[in-house]
Amino acid sequence: FPHVGWVRATDGCDPAYWMMSEDLAMHVPHLWELAERRVDGDRLASDLLEGPYREGRKAMGRSDGLIEPLCYANDHVSVDLAGNRYVCHHSVDRSLKTGEMFKTGRTTAEQEAEASAARFVETDNCRNCAINHWCRGNCHRSRTHEVDCRLAKAKHEIFSWIAQQEGLCHAGLHDHAHRS
Question: Cα separation of 100 and 26, whole Å?
Answer without folding.
Answer: 43
